[in-house]
Amino acid sequence: MDVWLQECPKCLFVNDRLEHPTPNAKAILASSRYQQVIADTTVPELARKFARYATLNTEDIEKAGAALLHSAWVCDDEAATERAIAYRSQAADLLLSLQPFEDTEEQVTLGISVVDVLRRALRFSEAKTLARTLFALKCVSATQIMGEILEYQCRLCESGDAACYTVADAETHDEAGLELESKRSRWFWFASLACVGVVVAIGTAVVCIQFSEVW
């Protein structure tokens, strides 16, 4: 992940490519919000870089949300659990603004991703509420893996489980009690769902499988 963004050493502007323009970049770089992210040395440096990228791209909700999830990943690796939860919660707030999700594979896949982000941010009630909304869509009833994932997410929420899992876990989970080993993975839900033909292209050019939370 440390090569996913480029940074100007002088002004600390970050982007997937420095030559790519960002609207209102000069004003954002001078803003107190951007400067606060730079100054908060309690956060891992790479996480701050992705957070700055999110700040520069707040008009693109999906791109900003993905960047905040990347910050959470970095915090996971650094055992900065509370920071990881905070970044996921910020990402969830952005992604929830995209509601209502349409009854299409692309939109439902995004919605499932948001359920996972909410759960991993300890927002279990909201995750279950969104899952119930998605269950009502025809696309979910027509795609078995989507229903299995949502059911598994609800079970995890009921047990207060905010760990990361794989799609395979959703397919083979123990009906009696979720006694599966939590597994780390750097794949999003989108990458996993792509295995069954659900492909969603969002985010930046440097990361083509964003938004489904890491399991």
Write structural notes for this entry.
The chain is built from 11 helices and 2 strands; from the N terminus they run ββααααααααααα. With 215 residues, the chain is an all-alpha fold. A two-stranded antiparallel sheet has the order 1-2.
Overview features:
single chain; 215 residues; mainly alpha; two-stranded antiparallel ribbon; 11 helices
Q: Would you spell out the secondary-structure blueprint of this structure?
A:
Blueprint: E1 6-7, E2 14-15, H1 25-30, H2 32-39, H3 45-56, H4 61-77, H5 81-96, H6 105-120, H7 124-135, H8 138-142, H9 144-158, H10 167-172, H11 189-194
Antiparallel strand pairs: 1-2
Helix pairs in contact: 2-3, 3-4, 4-5, 5-6, 6-7, 6-9, 7-9
In short:
The chain is mostly helical and 215 residues long. It contains 11 helices and 2 strands; from the N terminus they run ββααααααααααα.
